[in-house]
Design a protein that fits this description.
The chain is mainly alpha-helical and 418 residues long. It is 71% helix and 0% strand.
Length: 418
């Protein structure tokens, strides 16, 4: 009997961990649709998971664990409403939930769980919320990351991140932000905001060297997973496909971006045998599918640039002329000095560092406090043989750099000038 209880407990813990990792967003989105309250839904889901552990280790797993948790969470929410201090003001809401609950079948005999994640994604990424709050709320509600994990990823205290999440949920309620997928005329504009938040999550895990490595890798993986979910919920959208292709192609180079000592390695010095061929193949296939729709957007163009790198056997044989043309196209749809800066790097290889420096001269006012501007300027001067100017630019880049791994990389580059 004791052995069976221990086996049940181990199975229950494993299944709950799997539910949190793979079905948290689906369960929570259904609860929010049912309850109309972010915080109540999250609290009820936590209550249900705690009940699941106790119930399943005594009785074993139900036929449909996710459905069991969802039904239990609904009833936990009803219990919470009944115990609330303002119960009288919520009686009509409470009565409605009771009636809806009676209509549901019991436990493991419940109907298949619906999928409300698309509505949840658009609510979390609503323009009324600031970008950081949208990013954190997306990770919490759709990804199931704990508040402490999100805080460490963004270098915040857990208390500060908890307060940010609470404020975001309150704002959704106070501003009556609708829990809906946007109408057709709003779709393109709002989708861009969603994709931007997901790409921020990816970059937070891929480009920054702060925080715990495992959490940061998990952020990139979570962004890829969220985009795959979005692609399933809204198929045939080329910009969703473009973002997924872009992230897969970037992520294919992850193992080559640092050496054995954990030092940053530039793309021109990376060991391309370490690039993940399966991710490259997957990314290229998705990009081809997106481009066939003939509706190019910024993520597709960026993915095409990354694809040009991925297809090249070496840095020297990269199609730099093609990359310059792609940056010209990207600038047409997202005109920004950062895009122009990235184009100058491609020009430095397709033409010369001197030609690239000429382009930089037009960007200095706009990017005078931007670390990559001075890092690029230093590299162009270094390759052009201008050691004094290169050293000056490296020093300025390090002064503006707030990331230790990048600063160390710049220092090593400057040391080689001697």
């Amino acid at each position: 009997m004791v052995e069976q209880f221990q086996n049940n407990e181990a199975l229950a813990r494993q299944r709950i961990e799997l539910l949190v990792r793979e079905e948290w967003g689906k369960l929570l989105s259904c609860l929010i649709a049912y309850l109309g309250d972010f915080q109540l839904a999250e609290d009820a889901l936590q209550d249900a998971l705690e009940s699941a552990l106790q119930h399943w280790k005594r009785n074993g797993l139900p036929r449909s664990p996710a459905a069991w948790v969802l039904q239990t969470a609904r009833r936990k929410a009803i219990d919470r409403l009944r115990r609330a201090a303002n119960f009288k003001s919520k009686q009509s809401e409470y009565q409605l939930l009771l009636e809806m609950d009676r209509d549901e079948m019991e436990g493991e005999e419940m109907h298949e769980i619906g999928d409300e994640r698309l509505r949840l994604i658009f609510t979390c990424c609503h323009p009324a919320l600031d970008r950081k709050s949208s990013t954190a709320l997306t990770l919490r509600t759709l990804g199931g990351l704990q508040t402490g994990e999100i805080a460490r990823a963004f270098l915040d205290s857990e208390k500060a991140m908890a307060q940010r999440l609470v404020r975001a949920k309150r704002k959704i309620r106070a501003a009556a932000i609708p829990y809906v997928v946007p109408d057709a005329h709003q779709w393109g504009e709002r989708l861009n905001g969603v994709l931007s938040v997901i790409y921020l999550i990816f970059n937070e895990g891929y480009f920054s060297g702060h925080g715990e490595a495992q959490i940061r890798t998990e952020l990139s993986n979570e962004a890829i997973r969220l985009t795959k979910t979005l692609m399933e919920l809204k198929p045939a959208e080329p910009e969703i496909e473009g973002l997924l292709a872009l992230m897969l192609l970037h992520d294919s180079r992850r193992e080559a971006r640092q050496n054995a000592q954990g030092e940053m390695v530039s793309i021109e010095e990376q060991d391309r045998s370490l690039w993940d061929k399966s991710k490259i193949k997957q990314g290229l296939g998705i990009l081809d599918e997106a481009l066939r729709k003939l509706r190019p957007g910024p993520y597709q163009i960026q993915a095409a640039i990354s694809a040009t790198h991925a297809r090249a056997a070496s840095h020297s044989t990269t199609g730099w002329d093609e990359i310059v043309l792609l940056y010209d196209e990207l600038f047409k749809v997202t005109p920004s000095p950062v895009v122009a800066l990235n184009k100058s790097v491609a020009v430095s290889f397709s033409q010369s560092p001197k030609a690239a420096l000429k382009l930089l001269g037009e960007l200095e006012d706009a990017l005078k406090n931007y670390q990559p501007f001075y890092a690029s300027k230093a590299d162009f001067h270094r390759r052009n043989g201008d050691i004094t100017q290169a050293r000056s630019a490296y020093l300025k880049a390090m002064e503006l750099c707030n990331e230790e791994n990048t600063r160390a990389f710049l220092q090593r580059r400057m040391d080689k000038l001697k």
